[in-house]
Amino acid sequence: MFSFFKPPLANSIKATAVLFPDLVETIMSTNMEIVCVGNELLIGKTLNTNAQWLAKRATSLGITVIRITVVSDEVEEIASVICEALVRKPRFIIVTGGLGPTFDDKTLEGIAKALKKKLKVNETAFNMVKEKYEVYAKAGRIEKFEMTPYRVKMAMLPEGAEPLPNPVGTAPGVMLKTENVFLIALPGVPSEMEAIFDESVSALLKKEAGDLMLFEASIYADNIMESDLAPLIDVTMHDNPYVYIKSHPRGEEKKPHIELHLSTTAEKSKIAKYRLGKAIIQLSELIREKGGKVKV
User: What is the pTM for the complete model shown?
Assistant: First the structure.
């Protein structure tokens, strides 16, 4: 989201770090990586709506999503991706999918392997799962109540992990902290993932982000190619290091119509509006100098 944390604006990073060290530390400490587990995602059977929902929700809370990864239902693959993410030391790693009772639900096994921890029955998680199936039995949704090995599997958590209540389904979410990273696993069923996130995760993200909020604005450029816009965007972002600008072509090659989406995070709307306004004025002037037209 913040352009000055990405090449080719390395000089901007250094300048910002010198002038605003507290802001840089705050932003860098609220980075997030999202890992989505499931063969169904890799073969194109299922649209990855979880990643989009999580990214949008986290961003709205002031968190910067720096990477989204999709991985297969294999313990080694899951462990490898988690290890790679931990090396980058984001504040949060959120994993979705693979928490259920079936043989291909291997997320917690992969996390345990990555952290070199054992999987054990977590008493709190066991009671959560048990109570759900008791309710299902009383409601006639299952024939009889029984804690089968498949159901107990959903209560097998890495050592030191905390189960998160699932208000919609059966498998609890899971959270643990390793060094300075919060590692959170959520079910792949969208309704369950969203419910656990809103009830047990969003408050933590908001606390870490402090009062930072995302502010956005868009302008539209006509009669100018995206390749000609690119250097103008670079100049504008360099001069406005708090503002990230992303171009989205909406027209055709011979009749370019491009949305320019500007975003910034700030504690006060007045500051955000000033930053966005300043960047919009500069970028609009540059576009007009190149013969393009700008619409708000």
Answer: 0.74
